[in-house]
Amino acid sequence: MRLAATCNFGLSSVLKSEIQKLGYEIFESTDRFIRFNGDFRAVARTNLRLRTANRIYIEVSEGEAKDFDGLFEIAKKGEWKRILPTGCPVTIRAVSEKSMLDSLPSIQKTVKKAVVEGYAGRTGEIMPEDPELPEISVLALLRNDKALILLDTSGDPLHKRGYRVAGVEAPIKETLAAGLVLLSNWRYSEPFRDPFCGSGTIAIEAAMIAKNIAPGILRSFAFERFPFADEIPFEEERQECLKREMRDKPHDIVGSDVDMEAIDSARKNAAAIGLDRSVKFEVAEFPNAGTLRTGTLVTNPPYGERLADKRVATSAHEALFDAFRSAPTLSGGIITAFEEAAHFSGGLGMKDRKIPNGPIPCRYYFRTPNRG
Ligand SMILES: C[S@@+](CC[C@H](N)C(=O)[O-])C[C@H]1O[C@@H](n2cnc3c(N)ncnc32)[C@H](O)[C@@H]1O
To answer: Is the full-model pTM beyond 0.85?
Structure first.
């Protein structure tokens, strides 16, 4: 069976290594999209365990699609009657890159018609769609005039871990936070800090990584409703994840923020996944006497979109890059849209990778621990 995973731009290398560590063979990878071989167990395992994937798909059909008739035939090939849960409304999402067919609404309409006709088959059975039931999503991906029809096995995107019970304005996505921590190569025996932690996402993801807590352990997935769900050993894989957790292993992880309400949210979020005693959250203004000198610091400071906030952003960035300058054994990184960051990061031996934070074009300036 062929599977595929999507991710945030800039995180494909991290997702690739996550998939390979789970033992699956990747046969194609491009920005944001990785195809690999798997089985029913892999559907459960990847949904439960991949930290940087947005969604996991089962490939349904594939072929050249230079016109709508061609696309229709490819989509109709799917064994929809066997694949779709009875009664769930089917939504088609479409992406087109470098292809003659580029009208997304027309692609969606064509694929939907093909799914309905494919479902009807020779018997002519009408595909029931009950708006009260949860939606099932199908992705039509066109690249270089090749169409791939993919069944979404995740449902809610995988950044929705289920622990975000309290929020702040514009938190970073959990999948992105995990990607930043993984890129930092944090050594779990060393301290970890996020001094602009907001609702705590980066620190909580760091704790989940160090303690081997599966990112999907709290949530449910679309594949549980599929007619072939019995063949997916979901409960077995969940139990395996629980067995692999190392919750009692001690770690030094602290998130801090100047805003009391943010710290309150961070504590509630950590408690929702049972990490309230593993991650310390405190109110503190950065910089301060306790600023980390060795270990890993990963953070998402204010970028200063509005003029009044520009001064706050400038001093935050100056102080952050100074912390890295004055402490050569400090590793980690800063994700930011702040343009002067490129200037501040000069001479620090930091890599600089384009990683958007949602719709905001950002860069991640980071350096990994010296392995010498
Ligand atoms: C972009 S938000 C971080 C969002 C966070 N990554 C999350 O997932 O919720 C930036 C945070 O920096 C905090 N902040 C601004 N200036 C600060 C300072 N000097 N010291 C500490 N925190 C500060 C703000 O209160 C805000 O919560």
So the answer is: yes
